[in-house]
Amino acid sequence: MTTLLKQTREINHLLQKTEKVDYSEVTKLLSRCMEANVYLIGKKGAIIGHALHEGFECGVMQDDLLEHGQLPEGYTKVLSSVRETTCNIRPKNGGCVFKEQLQCPYAGEKYTLIVPVVGIGKRLGSLVIGKFDTDFTEDDLVMAEYGATMLGMDLLRGRMDRMEEETRKRTTVQVALSTLSYSELEAAMNILSELDGDESLIVASKIADRAGITRSVIVNALRKLESAGVIESKSLGMKGTYIRILNEHLIEEFNKKKH
Question: Is residue 234 domain-resident?
Answer without folding.
Answer: yes
